[in-house]
Amino acid sequence: MEGKRISKSVLKRLPGYLAYLKNMPEDAPVNISATALANALGMGEVQVRKDLAMVSDGGRPKIGYQRESLIEDIEQFLGYDNTTDAVLIGAGKLGQALMGYKGFDEYGLNILAAFDEKPQMEKTEEGKPVYHISKLSAFCRTHKVLMGIITVPAEAAQQVADQLIVGGIKAIWNFAPTHLDVPSNILVQNENMATSLAVLSVHLQAQIKEEKEIKEKEGKL
Amino acid sequence: MEGKRISKSVLKRLPGYLAYLKNMPEDAPVNISATALANALGMGEVQVRKDLAMVSDGGRPKIGYQRESLIEDIEQFLGYDNTTDAVLIGAGKLGQALMGYKGFDEYGLNILAAFDEKPQMEKTEEGKPVYHISKLSAFCRTHKVLMGIITVPAEAAQQVADQLIVGGIKAIWNFAPTHLDVPSNILVQNENMATSLAVLSVHLQAQIKEEKEIKEKEGKL
DNA sequence: TTTATATCGATTATAGCATATCGATTAGAT
DNA sequence: ATCTAATCGATATGCTATAATCGATATAAA
After folding, report:
1. By the CB < 8 Å criterion, does A187 face chain B?
2. Amino acid A165 CA to nucleotide C6 C1' distance, rounded Å
3. Are A202 and B109 a contacting pair at CB < 8 A?
4. Beta strands of chain A (E only): which ranges?
5. What 3-state DSSP class applies to B20?
6. In angstroms, what CA-CA distances link B154 with A15, A124, B53?
7. How distant is the Cα of A135 from the closest Cα of chain B, in angstroms?
8. 109-168 in A: which are within 8 Å (CB) of B?
9. Which element (helix H / strand E) includes B171?
């Protein structure tokens, strides 16, 4: 159901459910149970049920949820049904990769234009315009853009963020590996590869250490 | 200090500290206090202190931490001091962007080669070889690669993961927007843009709703 | 030498989240 | 019509992470 406040952890799990539901084959049953979802995604069934209860109320015993309406409920909750316009700053490799990613449509995200300090082209491969960064805040204001995607080097990120805020932006998707200082009403979502790498790296280290210990043990025997 | 078990949340914050410390100007003071770090990054000072205590023991009252040795401690803890080899599968735009990212050296990550279902070139711009995907598991075995980076479309991801595991990989960095089924000793770190987008989207929706309500109120006055 | 202050580290409290349990509901079989 | 089994939703419990508090320590100044 709607209207409740939702925790960030739940929020982050919802896209997972959505992706799984949307990728189910056409000839799959019309209904799906929270139990089945949980098993498929390797999670606890109670957690799945609780999460789904936050966004939908279509669950029926013995039947489960109607797949179609569950998808709609999640999408509506996540706001994927109405599009949000965004700008992207930093037309380097990563920036271009994001500009070219078709999947954003599904999430209701529409990148209007790219900005760069030294624009190498007038339009991207996809036909989106590339402007000089000096025009950033004005563009945001006139087009009422609410979201900025930062793919510039770390050194330039804060400066870009400041200009975005001048332009009236409310949310920033930050791919630069640096901390951004912003007013409290602006949301910064950090897509920081370094954090992921840290998790992986530490896991691997532990793994290697473990293997070494096993080998040493075997050597002693 | 070392040897303790560390929680994932702490782990994810460490790269933030590290990046900030490394970006400090040469002429900055030799020492830095947990308090100063906390203020700079907009966090609670107690949390920062606790996190640092997990990886270092160089904190001294009134002085703080020695910047250089703190950096070393964090890097050592994260395993950035010895390199880990990796392979990348999916030489599309995102894959190429990652291959070209110089910053990975700093994290001790070395991408040996790329694999693709239909290799478009023999070598990447950076001179790394691009092989057909059929050679994946053999390559991993012979080079004792422990980490795989998946940048293929969602449909192909599970299949690639399976082959990686056959090749003896221990950790997977998954950029495909899908759930991967793997044995419990394999770590999957999902770099899922969809989750970030969800957080942003819901925030923006709330923001828009709020603004609308304010306007309606003003209209009534 | 003494005192004041900045900072650390340990302990305790609070809150949020995940997990387990239980009763309620309903489709389908008998 | 009744019973069974699957599934849901709600409540209760336990755990982990964050936040708050307090004493200890070391430097610098008087």
Report:
1. yes
2. 36
3. no
4. 31-32, 65-66, 84-89, 109-116, 130-132, 147-150, 171-174, 187-190
5. helix
6. 14, 25, 40
7. 23
8. 109, 146-147, 154
9. strand B171-174
pTM beyond 0.85 = yes
Kindly give the confidence (pLDDT) of every residue in chain B, 221 residues in length, as a single tens digit, with 9 standing for 90 and above. Answer: 444 578 899 999 999 999 999 999 988 899 999 999 999 999 999 999 999 999 998 889 999 999 999 999 999 999 999 999 999 999 999 999 999 988 899 999 999 999 999 999 999 999 999 999 999 999 999 999 999 999 999 999 999 999 999 999 999 999 999 999 999 999 999 999 999 999 999 999 999 988 899 999 998 87
Tokens of A193: 């590869």
Residue of A nearest to B100 (CA): A93
Tell whether B15 is within 8 A of chain A (Cβ): yes
CA-to-C1' span, A40 to D10 (A): 25
Q: Which residues pair with A60 in a beta bridge?
A: A64
Taking CB atoms and an 8 Å cutoff, what residues of chain A touch B38? none
